[in-house]
Predict the 3D structure of the following.
Amino acid sequence: MTQIKEASTIQENKQAAFKECPVTYVMERIGGYWKPIILFHLLAGSKRYSEIKKAVPGITEKVLIQHLKQLEADNLVIREARPVVPPYVTYRLTVSGMGLRPVMYAMANWAVEDSEANGTPMYKSLGNFPETPKLAAV
Amino acid sequence: MTQIKEASTIQENKQAAFKECPVTYVMERIGGYWKPIILFHLLAGSKRYSEIKKAVPGITEKVLIQHLKQLEADNLVIREARPVVPPYVTYRLTVSGMGLRPVMYAMANWAVEDSEANGTPMYKSLGNFPETPKLAAV
DNA sequence: ACAAGTACTTACCCTAAAGTATGTATCATC
DNA sequence: GATGATACATACTTTAGGGTAAGTACTTGT
């Protein structure tokens, strides 16, 4: 176990929260701005690096690979590289990553409803939502 | 919400993504580490400031009120203050905030399953998942 | 010969977010 | 009259994340 200094009560508390709050668990793995967006675009299936880059406008290459590597290290995506030139690298979700589909779907769903409720509907439907979502009982 | 400079093309792209990707929409409102955790703890119903502070260990007071104010400004929580001494302030979810319940639930669900799949089960069940409080019309 | 495409890498900078610490108003009680 | 509780506020510092720009390796196309 990691040793913790007496003075750092916050880190201790964070540890406790991590063990008790499932949402904290999630945030530790897909927290931040970009990761959910990247994962969302991978729901449709494996994509080349360049495809992801196009699908996620606004992200810089540095930040993109940075997160892709992190997601790979966290066992959420799998990187597959064909030893060809020019490089052909694809990324796809692991089983664990696939498990996030309901999360993404719930998010997308809320975005539609909430933007409508705000009087500024931005997304007509979820017709273009990647593939069949398994609806978990809520 | 956010002010945008002309010259930055990435910001333009971010705008485009905002209009096309529902997950981006969500991230703009509850992105970051703390907000989902705070919202999760408010699912159970209205809580006093001090209660939230206890429920979300690891967060500093500064960051907590900062996010609470932001969430209030984004119409996700409602602040109610009784003019008494000592102060009695409660926070509760708006209808919009309540709409995030499926998102939270999906997250919590994934945390349980994923931690089990990892061989390090951290949360036995979702028995303690915040029940639906009386739905207040807002 | 040289540009173009692919999937990165590296170096440097800058800002926004978060952490630390202390202060404030009001009243109750000890 | 000092202390504690509550719900913040404010100043200051640090850190992590993100942005800009340029480079790399290797081959195909012109």
